[in-house]
């Protein structure tokens, strides 16, 4: 039996309306209708389709694993690495985000750290008798915070 028919039949056997299910599951009515009519292209994406199917089937007391497996057989996830199918007629862009590595940032950080270490050493070397809160090291560390 098809997924949509199975969902509709289970809902009707329980004498429930789509409004009843919408208020309980918080799945919008148009998505519930799409699930029952197997119009998966209306759904926002593959993840949502699987989640809505799981929630709806669990609410109706159906075997969620079986429903999800049927959906996956009809709309298998693409594994070519280029695109991921969100549902019939929907494609997501390839997920490959690369951040360019800029070594100048590393050098700037290293230079800044070396400069801070030099300032702290200089402040520690000063042998003035001052209360701890007025010492240059403390002021420097507070400033860095």
UniProtKB/TrEMBL annotation:
Coiled coil: none annotated. PANTHER family: CYTOSKELETON PROTEIN RODZ (PTHR34475:SF1), PTHR34475. It comes from Pelotomaculum thermopropionicum (strain DSM 13744 / JCM 10971 / SI). This is Uncharacterized protein conserved in bacteria. SUPFAM superfamilies: lambda repressor-like DNA-binding domains. It holds the Pfam family HTH_25. GO terms for molecular function: DNA binding. Residues 77-98 are annotated as: Disordered. InterPro entries: Bact_Cytoskel_RodZ, Lambda_DNA-bd_dom_sf.
């Amino acid at each position: 039996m098809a997924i949509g028919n199975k969902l509709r039949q289970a809902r009707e056997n329980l004498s429930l309306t789509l409004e009843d299910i919408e208020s309980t599951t918080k799945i919008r009515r148009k998505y519930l209708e799409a699930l029952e009519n197997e119009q998966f292209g209306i759904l926002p994406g593959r993840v949502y389709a699987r989640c809505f199917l799981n929630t709806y089937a669990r609410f109706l007391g159906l075997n969620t694993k079986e429903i999800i497996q049927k959906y996956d057989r009809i709309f298998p996830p693409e594994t070519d690495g280029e695109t991921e199918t969100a549902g019939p007629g929907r494609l997501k862009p390839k997920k490959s985000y690369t951040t360019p590595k800029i070594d100048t940032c590393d050098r700037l950080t290293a230079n800044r750290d070396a400069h801070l270490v030099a300032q702290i050493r200089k402040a520690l070397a000063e042998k003035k008798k001052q209360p701890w809160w007025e010492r240059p090291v403390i002021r420097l560390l507070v400033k860095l915070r």
